Amino acid sequence: MKQPLAYVHPDAKVADNVVIEPFVSIDHDVVIGEGTRIGSSVTILPGTRIGKNCKIFPGAVIGAAPQDLKFQGEYSTVEIGDNNTIREFVTINRGTSAKGKTVIGNNNLLMAYVHVAHDCKVGNNIILVNNVQLAGEVQVDDWAILGGMSAVHQFVRIGSHVMISGGSLVRKDVPPFIKAGREPLSYVGINSIGLRRRQYNNDKIREVQDIYRYIYQKGLNTAQAVEIIEAEMAATPERDEVLLFVKDSKRGIIRGYFPD
Q1: What element of type H or E holds 103?
Q2: Candidate list 68, 82, 119, 141, residue with the active-site label
Q3: pTM for the full model?
Q4: CB-side neighbour CA atoms (13 Å) of 115
Q5: Percentage of residues of the chain with pLDDT beyond 90
Q6: Which residues form the Mannose-1-phosphate guanyltransferase C-terminal domain (predicted)?
Q7: Are the C-beta atoms of 56 and 70 separated by less than 8 Å?
C-alpha cells in the first residue's frame, strides 16, 4: 500500500503488500520484500536490498553513500535480511570497493539513531541499543548485544553472544560468549545469563568459563593461553570458536580486568 505523498521510483522492485507511509522516498535500484513496512519520511537510496517482514521507522536513511574519502562512486549495496526492526533515524551506508556491500542479517533490532557504516557485517538476532555507532568494516556476530552510546572502532570484530556495557569505546576485538565493560574496555566475565536464555547448559557454560580463565585469569599471554587450551581441553564447537576467533584477530582482543 503506497500513500499518494510518497515517492517510489518506477524501477524500484517493491512487493505488492509493502506498506509505504507518507513522505517516503524510494529510489531506483531498490528491492523490498513482502510484508515490510516503511514509516513516514524514510529515505531508501540506490543499491538497497530489504527482505521480508521488516519494520523501518520514521526518519531512517538506508543506502546512502559511504562516509569514506576513498570512495570513488563505485557500485555497492546494502543487503538487509528478514524480520529486522530499524528504529527512528537509523543510518545504514552502503559498501565501498573494500567489500562491496554492507550486510544486516535476520531478526535484528537497531534502536533509534544507530549508525552502521560502510562494509559492516551485522549477523542475526543482534541488538544495537540507541546511538550505537559502528565504524567502517566492523563485524558483529550472532546474538551480540551492544549497550547504548557505544562506539566501535573500524575493523573491530565482536563475537557471538557478547554483551557490551553502555557507553563503551570498543577499540579491540571482543571474543565470543563474554561480557565487556569498564574503560578501557575489559573482560568482566562470561555472559552466562545470555547463554542460559539460548539453551546452553551448565556444563557448556563451565567449559566457556574454563577457557577464559586461561586467557584472562592465569597470567598468561594470549599465545600461551591458546597453546594450553589446545593441549588440555577437548575439542568442542565452543572451544574451537573461541580459538579461531583469537587466532584470526587482526586488532588483538580486549584486555582482562585488573583492579587497581
Answers
A1: strand 101-104
A2: 119
A3: 0.96
A4: 17
A5: 97
A6: 6-96
A7: no
What integer pLDDT is reported at residue 257 of this predicted model?
74
Residue pointed to by grid coordinates 574451537: 240
The verdict on whether 161 is a catalytic residue reads no
Residues 6+ apart with CB under 8 A from 15: 32, 33, 34, 35, 36, 52
Of the listed 95, 123, 136, 194, which one is catalytic? 136
Query: For 69-112, what is each residue's pLDDT tens digit?
Result: 999 999 999 999 999 999 999 999 999 999 999 999 999 999 99
CATH class of segment(s) 195-256: mainly alpha
Long-range contacts: 142-147, Cβ < 8 Å, 24+?
A: 142/105, 143/194, 143/198, 145/194, 146/170
Domain ranges of the chain: 7-140, 195-256
Average pLDDT (186-208) is: 97
**Which residues are 49's β-sheet partners?**
31, 79
Catalytic residue list contains 136: yes
Between 182 and 1, whose confidence is greater? 182
CATH match of 7-140 with 2.160.10.10: yes
Rounded-to-integer distance, Cα 32 and Cα 49, Å: 6
DSSP H stretches of helix in 68-221: 192-197, 202-216
How much is the average pLDDT of 215-232? 96
CA distance 26 to 8: 5
Q: Give catalytic status of residue 63 as yes or no.
A: no
Spatial CA neighbour of 150 closest among 107, 124, 191, 182:
182
